[in-house]
Amino acid sequence: LAWLEYAAARGLLGFLAALPRKAAVRASVAIAAGCWHLLGGLRRVAMTNLRIAFPEKDAAEHERLAKGAFRNLGRILGEMSQFPKATPESLRQAIEFRVDPAVYAEYQQLKSEGRGVIIVSPHLGNWEMLVFGWATYDAPMSYLARPLDNPLLEKLTIGLRTKFGNRPINKTNSVIAASRVLREEGLIGIL
Fold it and tell me: Which alpha helices (H) appear in 81-126, and where do they start and end?
């Protein structure tokens, strides 16, 4: 089963990677919208989680939010399919970082003092582009992530995420590894 999942993911990423960026994103959003109908188990999990998180919202709003989450995952997949051919220049054209100048100045001050920094961001929007792009905007980071259940997909994902020097830290029992990164004046992303 792991090989089958991997082959399907590689095939899909290969197809999307052959497309121009905008076409890849449109195609993957359409695929994700189709997955809403095909993947009943994931759809039920999404709806259950939304009922728990937002009990005041009605079923129609839960469904709207869940479908939006599926579409967003499609956008993320489309963008990730383009990672192998990304350059720092293409990322500067694709990503507009809007960092509060005062916060960025404080960040730069901490780095100049030789201190490690932790960046915390909500799991919203395209978190993959945030980590990937930050490596070319400012500096590579170590990021906390739960390894995927399929080791073949995990290896594929790490290969995409680390192109510009980012490094994964297994979030399970990550205190020692994260402490080491901070002692070495590194940057940790918690997304």
Answer: 88-94, 101-112
DSSP labels, 58-106: -HHHHHHHHHHHHHHHHHHHHHHTTGGG--HHHHHHH------HHHHHH
Has residue 100 got a pLDDT over 90?
yes
Cα separation, 90 vs 19, in Å, equals 15
pTM above 0.85, yes or no: yes
Task: Read off the tokens for 38.
Answer: 């095909």
Looking at the DSSP bridge assignments, the partners of residue 92 are: none
Question: Are 72 and 125 a contacting pair, CB within 8 Å?
Answer: yes
Q: What is the pLDDT of residue 60?
A: 97
- The pLDDT tens digits of the residues spanning 2-31 come to 999 999 999 999 999 999 999 999 999 999
Residue type, 83: F
* Distance between CA atoms of residues 129 and 88, nearest Å: 12
Cα(87)–Cα(136) distance, integer angstroms: 9
State the Cα angle at 159 between 182 and 14, rounded to 5°: 150
CA 1 to chain centre: 24
Contacts 24+ apart (CB under 8 A), 147-152: 150/2, 150/5, 150/6, 151/2, 152/2, 152/3, 152/5, 152/6
Which amino acid appears at position 109 of this protein? Q
